[in-house]
Amino acid sequence: MSFEDSLEQLKRQFLHALPDKKKQIITLWISLRKNWNAHMLSAVYREVHNLKGSSETFGLSDTKHIVDKLELQLKGLLNAPDPELHTIKELDTLFHQLLQNNMRGQPSPPVVEAQMQQSPYKPAKARHDHHIAIIEDDGNVGAMITKQLREFGFSVQHFLNFTSFLVVQNETPFDLILLDLILPDWTEEALFEAATEFEKNNTRVFVLSSRGDFDMRLLAIRANVSEYFVKPAETTLLVRKIHQSLKMSEKQPLKVLLVDDQQSMVDYFSSLLRSHGLIVKGLSSAEQVLPALEQFEPDLFIFDLYMPEVNGLELAKMIRQLDKYTSSPILVLSSDDTMQNKVSIIQAGSDDLISKQTAPSLFVAQVISRAQRGHDIRSSASRDSLTGLLNHTQILVTARRCYNVARRINSQVCIAMFDLDHFKKVNDTYGHAGGDKVLLAFAHLLQQSLRQTDFTGRYGGEEFMLVLPDMQKPLAIAKLNAIRESFSHIVFVEDGVEFKVTLSGGLVFSDECEEFQDCLLLADKHLYEAKRLGRNQLVFSPSGQD
Ligand SMILES: Nc1nc2c(ncn2[C@@H]2O[C@H](COP(=O)(O)OP(=O)(O)OP(=O)(O)O)[C@@H](O)[C@H]2O)c(=O)[nH]1
């Protein structure tokens, strides 16, 4: 169902329930008139306030007009012990108008804007689905780069001229092009023009040039190319840039937890955000928030300001007290977005107040930018700064969680400990920076080679932990062995000197150990054995070959 359809459906449901809702509020008002008390007054006020929010959201301008006045009058009474008679009469008139307005009040058309159709989050491609073209007329150079990039798990095709590349590109566009600027069949100017078009159409262009002068670089900047390399391009740097560039277009879907005591509002805002690719957990009771956090880790919280059992600010403070969410962005949703209210909400520790009347596109833009920030903060706290892989704590937590799930549902998870061989010698010979480059290259190789459902972490200096859930033993062994093999073929260059590095690994499968801790010990034991047997190999229990 499209977003407009589901919005229409929500609106129809709301309009269907509206007459009863109004009668319910008026019944409450009549009871209050008979027995004036603060508790009943605040209940009437809350119902009117909620109706105001919904009528704004669904564009019921007539209803909103009356409810605005009602809310203002009732608000003025909240702190007054006894209302004046003329105030009661004015309220009677307004409630009467509200009832009369039942059938007349036709909704104004929903605000659905063109850009609401477009989700900024394209579904992420599987890593090996990224296709890279190299257009390089020097056969040896092209073949060498192709070979190196394939070692990192990229799908690469080499073309000796631009025309043959275009034939393939027109059929199945590449995600990224490495473009030599001196080609036999096209001029530099024409190539830059083509590069501009590719970049416009979301195909990244990296220039490979023998010239690194200002004029040439300026032409490249004006053609909007993503990166510029002077030949010979260093493979590890090239890989890092490719990885960064391709990752930019496969952002993770952002997760939002939204709480509003009115189910119609939860449905409306959830539907709006979901239509833009966000994952939303909508709750109509504040008490459901803490249990929900056990399963759902949001990048952003959105709380309604006025709710019966707890207000949005109290809920925001509660969330901030949870260690994991201390820095998470929190937005408070309200119909009352006066400057004074905004200031007090920000002072109380929330990030901002967002009006229920905000145009959908602006609402979505605000939510996405804050959720993205929340996502970045949470992910940088859980990642190793050099490699970008999960840090020691996070990979351990993840491995334990996957182990527990596998045991519970009777599936299989493979946990592998990888350690680079003779790494001290690499550092001693090529310097710490040279060693860092190797670590980074290995991290890219892992990210490139594994599924998006696998996990990779930097366990210690040159030690890595891999977690492959739901994968049969022979397949896991073959996959990890292929990574070991590919890594051993990567040629590193430091000060003009070429060298290679190998790795050893210990593998364990969840059905081989009764406790998670036993798995770790066994993986370590296998790793030690791989080193003892001469390195550059993987060791696993004989049953691992089943
Ligand atoms: N460049 C770099 N080196 C690191 C980093 N963290 C740890 N190391 C180095 O990794 C090396 C690990 O050396 P050892 O534990 O002796 O092991 P090894 O030389 O790899 O020998 P084997 O594991 O037995 O094959 C040490 O020299 C550490 O300084 C890092 O972040 N960057």
UniProtKB/TrEMBL annotation:
One of its GO terms (cellular component) is plasma membrane. SUPFAM superfamilies: CheY-like, Histidine-containing phosphotransfer domain, HPT domain, Nucleotide cyclase. Residues 411-543 form the GGDEF domain. The keyword Cytoplasm does not apply. One of its GO terms (biological process) is negative regulation of bacterial-type flagellum-dependent cell motility. It is an enzyme of class 2 (transferase). Residues 3-102 form the HPt domain. Keywords: Phosphoprotein, Two-component regulatory system. Its cofactor is Mg(2+). Its EC number is 2.7.7.65. It catalyses: 2 GTP = 3',3'-c-di-GMP + 2 diphosphate. The modification 4-aspartylphosphate is found at residues 180, 304. It comes from the Bacteria. Residues 131-246, 255-371 form the Response regulatory domain. GO terms for molecular function: diguanylate cyclase activity; protein kinase activity. PANTHER family: DIGUANYLATE CYCLASE DGCM-RELATED, REGULATORY COMPONENTS OF SENSORY TRANSDUCTION SYSTEM. This is diguanylate cyclase. It comes from Shewanella baltica (strain OS155 / ATCC BAA-1091).
